[in-house]
Write a structure and sequence with these properties.
This protein has 203 residues and is an alpha/beta fold. The protein has a single domain (2-199), classed as Rossmann fold, CATH 3.40.50.300. The chain has eight helices and five strands. The protein has helices spanning 13-26, 41-51, 60-84, 95-105, 110-121, 136-142, 156-172, 186-199, and strands spanning 2-6, 31-35, 88-92, 128-133, 177-181. Strands 2-3-1-4-5 form a five-stranded parallel β-sheet, with helices on both faces. Helix 3 packs parallel to helix 5, helix 4 (95-105) runs antiparallel to helix 5 (110-121) and helix 4 (95-105) crosses helix 7. It starts with a strand and ends with a helix. 37% of the residues are buried.
């Protein structure tokens, strides 16, 4: 079982991913929690490079290729081997984030992104994706107190485009993507996550 959590910055997806990881451990499941970009030593190095603030202009196409490269390391060296061993993989962001951020956010053709993503992942798709949707202004308020990385520091309009991208992805794949209202409390959202997984016989 490959489960992913998606959403804009500050939506609470990382919290929900961690809660699910702990819940499955308590249920005796073999499970790992990972993230993107990152998950393996090489991919984590790329993460640091991608997200670090810099004075030099970061071309969108270069940004895209670095995300895809990090995903290649992640899928080949961690995710696929875990899935083959019957381990549940929970991932904080995956391919949908690239389509939303580099496609809708940066303006790169989403169809092109999906094509190269297939090359990097071997066509791997999550069994279920939880999209935690939250208005951008509310989400950015949540991260106001912390030091922001390069992506989090983007202008409001960029994050609005990314949110629209996630919503479009969910509309196009309703069987895979479960949209959750991020304005609700953490516990309430988590109960919905568990309910959806139990309904599908996933846990």
């Amino acid at each position: 079982m490959f489960i992913t959590f998606e959403g804009i910055e500050g939506c609470g997806k990382s919290t929900q991913a961690k809660l699910l990881y702990e819940e499955l451990l308590n249920r005796g499941k073999r499970v790992i929690l990972t993230r993107e970009p990152g998950g393996t030593p090489s991919a984590e190095e790329l993460r640091e490079f991608i997200l670090r603030e810099r004075e030099e202009f970061f071309p969108p196409f270069s940004e895209l290729l670095l995300y895809i490269a990090a995903r290649g390391f992640h899928v080949e060296n961690l995710i696929m081997s875990a899935l083959k061993e019957g381990i549940v993989v929970i991932c904080d962001r995956f391919s949908d984030s690239t389509v939303a951020y580099q496609g809708y956010g940066r303006g790169i053709d989403p169809k092109f992104i999906r094509e190269i993503d297939i090359r990097a992942t071997g066509g791997l798709r999550p069994d279920i994706t939880f999209l935690i949707d939250l208005p951008v202004k509310e989400a950015l308020k949540r991260i106001r107190s912390r030091e922001r990385d390069r992506i989090e520091s983007e202008e409001l309009e960029f994050h609005e485009r990314v949110r629209r991208g996630f919503i479009e992805i969910a509309k196009s794949e309703p069987e895979r993507v479960v949209v959750l209202d991020g304005r609700r409390g953490i516990g309430e959202i988590f109960k919905e996550v568990i309910r959806k997984l139990e309904e599908r016989g996933a846990i």
